[in-house]
Amino acid sequence: MPQHARLRYHLAMPQPHCHLFEVSLAVANTTGPFLDLKLPSWAPGAYKLVDNARNLRALVAKGPEGDLPVERIDLHTWRVHHDGADFSVSYQVFGDKPQIHQAQLTATHAMINGAAIFVYPTGGQDWPCELKLELPEGWEVSVALDETAPLSYTAPSYDALIDAPIQAGTFERASFETLGVVHEITWQAPYPMDRARVVDGLKRLVETEAAFWSGSAPATLPYSRYIFQYQHGPENFLNGLEHRDSMFIVGPMDLQGNSHGFFALTAHEVFHAWNVKRLRPVGLGPFDYQKPAHTTALWVVEGLTEYFTELMVLRAGLQGRSEYLRGVAGSIQMLEQSPGRLISSLSESSFITWNFGDDRWNGAINYYLKGSLVGLALDLEIRHLTENRQSLDDVMRALWERFGETDVPYQPSDVEAIASEVAGVDLSEFFELHLRTPGETDLAPYLAHAGLGLTVASRTASLQARLVNRDGGLYVEDVRAGGAAQNAGLMAGDLVVAIGGNRANEGLLPQIASQWLPEELVPVHFFRGDRLHETIIRLGADQRYGIESLPAPNALQQQIKDSWLASGRTAAREKTIV
Known about the structure:
globular; 6-stranded antiparallel β-sheet; alpha+beta; Immunoglobulin-like; 4 domains; Neutral Protease, domain 2; about 30% helix
């Protein structure tokens, strides 16, 4: 780093209804005849390449003597010829994407992932940064950066700057303190925050997760400040992204209709404050923002986080055992209905997440989904092998002590080695089967370790395709590979107008399971383009599972179940050792 090199950003929003951010960057004490400025092609935590530069426009550079030449090197790079002098650039960014890895500016609010807004110099990701915000009148801001003056902030590096999302507008605030750390909550939604419920739930989750990672030691947190940022969005689902000292969730903030989803996603993002933001595999930092950061360990980063998410909600007392087990059964059903499980392994899907095919889940497996179930299997296997003396909790804590606390990235093989160490036996066959081999994942033997059995709760007729109400019928968004719809000749893009002589609309879909039986032949009329077609579908069978106690479980099975499914904030003390 050139001595005293520093990046000074200014971000303004003079006409928010135009969706245009006004950005300037002053660069001081840099050397050489030119400096390349780049805009990231992806944001940490969102494992997809995005052409952020498509929204950057009107970049100009100025030095002490006036305008400087700017050369476009590639789609994401601008070369400023400054001849060793201090200089500044200014530009605009169009932002109207209400997504966690993008930026949106409207007449009412701004939500900003810095990767979509702030250019950085090649080789300058570790340069210290300053940020000055200029907001519309009456707006306030939420950002996990050190504030040096009103609306003025510092970050130790560019990486830290863009790892602190910015929420601006008018919103509700709340806060709580636990374990010596103040946690802030900002909430922007068309309906008020249920303050008491949100604060109580978040405090429970933070304390539960801190206890998990701390083990037998007094509970501590890895950060000195944390912000929960909630932003109402247009989609009918919640989406979240982790950051080092904050998290951002976008979607319908509806605690009445989806309190479990709200607290579960929050628990997931808080868990990431340890798992990935500090405990990370090789490849996930330091980053090259122009290239994919490949790793086979996303089953740990995301899959195991997803597994522990539901356990954290259980241990925090925000769901019960039966609700937790229903969720596990639902995940098993989802995995069974994912044809990609037979095509790609868990490790491979982790690696290729950057370029999944257009037929995504027919050709690859969701590493969140399968990773969480492999985590469940590994947890129960370790508990069984050690007579309930050890668990996957101990594996995660050992990883944290050896790699997270020391800020040393781990190799995927380290996870397997530590798991074998904790289990007291070589688990190579387990990992070969569940990580590196495509195919079915039989959870029944592992559930049996906890005295539980997997049962078929129902077997119902299904088209085995995803259809949405559109254009006077049911539009086929995708078909399940090898499923009933595909076998009958239907494909994505078809418009189904009648099923079994009944007009096709969203009200008909739930009736399929009650009106017909699996294997029954049903006529289907559909448009492909402007031509009407008819086919006969042999309906498929989708199974819904339940998880029930086995008759007469032995003492070890009962002990494993009781410690694994301990609920409430005393879960860590309820572990049974035999």
